[in-house]
């Protein structure tokens, strides 16, 4: 059974249908990349996988998003619990500027009102920073502000903060778009390591990145401005980039539009 199952999902902003009729299965311990032109609903769809979409006033979702068979949009499901299980890394690194590196890693844990003894806090900080391939670079600077790190280090700090909460799924919304090529490579290498413990869904505008890091790729498209975005197809990444089943996918990948 797939870890994530999306069935007949329609995504609204008020009365406007932004993304229509998405059906998708995502297997455990894989990286799924979502590509497509700007404004086609990739990031909007991504935010529905941890109920961040409904934070926007008037936003709502129809259909089902199931994780391990449980519908995240069931009225009895607590959105806060969903976000513990499904972590998110955003486009721009967003460490809390007034907090130290150590405090940044523990921020999500404390937000969830988990009180840990000092020794457990130290162990969790080290484990999370090691998991984000950052420990060796910052182990002697844990009391310094997270904002003092380079852009690539800040993004890996945000990943450490995410994995400290021990989610099962990590969503990444264009996590490398603000980074230089070397930092981008570091984050891509990290994704490959993380997938042995987590299931990752990444939105990227960089098709080369999708081809490099993902197991499966989904292509979203927009028929016209004012029309809803839709998932055109999803398949193994190699097939999407070598022999897609839809002409629109081939046109996008070959640079004919987008």
UniProtKB/TrEMBL annotation:
PROSITE patterns: ABC_TRANSPORTER_1, ABC_TRANSPORTER_2. It holds the Pfam family ABC_tran. GO terms for biological process: phosphate ion transmembrane transport. Coiled coil: none annotated. Keywords: ATP-binding, Nucleotide-binding, Translocase, Transport. Residues 4-247 form the ABC transporter domain. SUPFAM superfamilies: P-loop containing nucleoside triphosphate hydrolases (SSF52540). One of its GO terms (molecular function) is phosphate transmembrane transporter activity. One of its GO terms (cellular component) is membrane. This is Phosphate ABC transporter ATP-binding protein. It comes from Boudabousia tangfeifanii. The lineage of its organism: Bacteria, Bacillati, Actinomycetota, Actinomycetes, Actinomycetales.
